[in-house]
DNA sequence: TGAGATAATTGAAACGTTATAAATTGGGGT
DNA sequence: ACCCCAATTTATAACGTTTCAATTATCTCA
């Protein structure tokens, strides 16, 4: 089925026959090679447009070794609602029209995080890699740096060798969140942290601790659970603390799920947010606009993060010096 | 940098030199061609494993025309929190290990929905296509059927020619949701519908209307807004109805955002969910477990949907007859 | 014993592109 | 008229795979 009206799919040979120039000349003309005469280039590009020529990716890839593909290692766990959606939208937004396509590779939390990277390197499946949930001495970063393979990490590392990264200032977020609660008169602030292996956990911890110490107030980092724990486990831990003597009157929540859990814990113990306690949450989606009672939020723009990472990867693949390829997003307070 | 310990990347020629068989024989042996002697096949596969041979995708693609790529047209709008994440996880789960990779192509709601499909067809960018938010006479379905190109739609169409689809029984969902509210004694039920162009909107409408008529109760389909309207607009429409005489005492919510909006509308007008009115919502993520007051929910398993679509696409590409490639997920009531 | 069939293997071509090296053209300067 | 050089263009090979058609080795049967 499907008779082509135009006939066969045009190739360089088609254009060669059409214009009378050799295949090599046509290729050069389209590539913008300066050794080709301007008139020739015009003739060739005109013919290419007329016939709707588009270079064959497989052939180009075979010849040059460049895949025109960017791989995104996507974690199956995320504390933000809509993380994947926002992040991915930002990336595809930038990459649309560049000729690069985005492939998604699952990055399972418990499994070997190196395996997908190794596969990509060994089988030459991409020209660049993006990934999230970076660890302090992330083995993926080490491997990719050794291989001199282009990548951008979402999150910083503690390696001394510089590499491209995009991050959010979680230290500033934690500090501001505490200060906001202190300004509301709160004196005992609770925090659930992500797993210790992630770099941003240290940033959160440091910002949180230094802010509570400066303010001279009490704090607690909820023990036994992380942001990646099953929500019921987090809920149980929060409830336990609410029933203990001296329950917290302020909550700093790094994810939306935790914020809802904290809110539920308050409600379930007869406390009222805004009266008996306050919550400050980092949000990535507008969902909290619809939650009652309202929660104070700090916005993290994950779409912009995705855009920044994609742009940075393009620049890295273009050979820009790595030292300058960093971007730290500052928290934007809504309230 | 990066000195290969193993030396060069192994190709068919490497295996040929290693085993003494010709390149053609090696290729056939690995492909399982029955004309190749069993002993030869063993020798060759052993060498392939030893050297870690993996076929070059570009070369294979150039030769066979098959891309080993599946394109996912991903809409930038979705009423479910975590839709993208769940759906994509299901797809990659099935495709992992099959040799297919998934590329994500943005499918902008306002724009020409055919453009990305045309690009994929013309430039031979994929072997199969998955997409969502199917319309009654979806132009993408028409084009792909004409081109005899493998695809699976999320949602049915009204074309007479059969094609592969995976869908959720939204008619049953709407009916059950109404019945649940009626059983709680509710007599005036409200519903916000998606845009009229989508097939599943008709299913929702039909299930909703037939259930309210059977029960002999009042209903209203909120006018002037759809599920894709900006949340503030939906909120305003809901509030307007709450202030009017005879406000609804039951809400059927197709998405999580709408459910939160309805809950907020109740709260903001001093009504209490569970007392003055009830909400039944379709959910795709466990978020509602954390919302107070609790909302009755019906689960739609989007991860399973993604899995089903990927599996079905593989079968379609394997040449199975299209008539049998359908799957309708039934609602699972939680409460 | 040899012809004819069958089984197993192989050389060579092709997919569409880019890069290397060589060839052609048109002037300028002598 | 000649040579040389720059400006263009071109033939050719290669990337790694699959497949057609042809070749060689092995077997069966008269």
Give, in spatial order, the strands making up the sheet with the most strands of chain A. Answer: 2-1-3-4-5-11
What summary fits the major beta sheet of chain A?
Answer: 6 strands, parallel
> How many β-strand stretches of chain A?
12
CATH architecture of the largest domain in chain A: 3-Layer(aba) Sandwich
CATH superfamily of the largest domain in chain A: Response regulator
What's the quaternary structure here? homodimer
Structural class of chain A: alpha/beta
Determine the CATH topology of the largest domain in chain A: Rossmann fold
How would you describe the overall organization of this protein?
The first copy, chain A, has 335 residues and is of the alpha/beta class. The first copy, chain A, folds into three domains: 12-55, lambda repressor-like DNA-binding domains (434 Repressor (Amino-terminal Domain)); 69-167 and 303-329, 3-Layer(aba) Sandwich (Rossmann fold); 170-299, Rossmann fold (3-Layer(aba) Sandwich). Helix content of chain A is 43%, strand content 16%. Chain A has twelve helices and twelve strands. Chain A has a six-stranded parallel sheet, sandwiched between helices. A six-stranded mixed sheet of chain A has the order 7-6-8-9-10-12, with helices on both faces. In chain A, helix 11 links the parallel strand 8 and strand 9 (278-283). In chain A, helix 5 (83-95) packs parallel to helix 12 (302-317) and helix 8 runs parallel beside helix 9 (199-215). The longest helix of chain A is centred in the middle third of the chain and has 17 residues, at 199-215. The termini of chain A are far apart. The model of chain A is unreliable at 1-6 (pLDDT under 50). At the A-B interface, helix 4, helix 5, strand 2, helix 10 and helix 11 of A face helix 4, helix 5, strand 2, helix 10 and helix 11 of B.
């Amino acid at each position: 089925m499907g008779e082509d009206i135009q006939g066969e799919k045009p190739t360089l040979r088609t254009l060669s026959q059409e214009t009378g120039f050799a295949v090599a000349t046509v290729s050069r003309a389209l590539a913008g090679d300066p050794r080709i005469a301007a008139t020739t280039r015009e003739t060739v590009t005109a013919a290419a447009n007329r016939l709707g020529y588009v270079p064959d990716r497989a052939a180009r890839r075979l010849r040059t070794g460049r895949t025109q593909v960017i791989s995104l290692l996507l974690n199956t766990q995320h504390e933000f609602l809509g993380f994947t959606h926002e992040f991915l939208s930002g990336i595809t937004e930038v990459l649309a029209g560049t000729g690069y396509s985005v492939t998604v590779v699952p990055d399972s939390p418990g499994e070997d995080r190196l395996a997908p990277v190794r596969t990509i390197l060994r089988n030459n499946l991409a020209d660049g890699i993006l990934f999230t949930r970076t660890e302090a001495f992330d083995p993926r970063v080490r491997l990719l740096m050794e291989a001199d393979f282009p990548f951008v990490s979402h999150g910083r590392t503690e390696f001394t060798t510089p590499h491209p990264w995009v991050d959010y200032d979680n230290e500033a977020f934690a500090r501001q969140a505490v200060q906001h609660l202190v300004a509301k008169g709160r004196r005992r602030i609770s925090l659930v942290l992500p797993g210790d292996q992630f770099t941003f956990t240290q940033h959160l911890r440091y910002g949180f601790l230094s802010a509570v110490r400066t303010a001279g107030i009490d704090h607690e980092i909820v023990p036994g659970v992380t942001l990646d724990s099953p929500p019921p486990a987090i809920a149980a831990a929060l409830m336990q603390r609410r029933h203990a003597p001296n329950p917290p009157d302020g909550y700093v929540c790094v994810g939306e799920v935790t914020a809802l859990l904290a809110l539920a814990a308050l409600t379930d113990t007869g406390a009222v947010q805004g009266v008996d306690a306050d919550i400050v949450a980092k949000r990535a989606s507008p969902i909290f606009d619809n939650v009652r009672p309202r929660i104070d939020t700090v916005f993290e723009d994950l779409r912009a993060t995705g855009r920044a990472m994609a742009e940075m990867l393009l620049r890295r693949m273009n050979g820009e010096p790595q030292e300058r390829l960093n971007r730290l997003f500052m928290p934007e307070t809504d309230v």
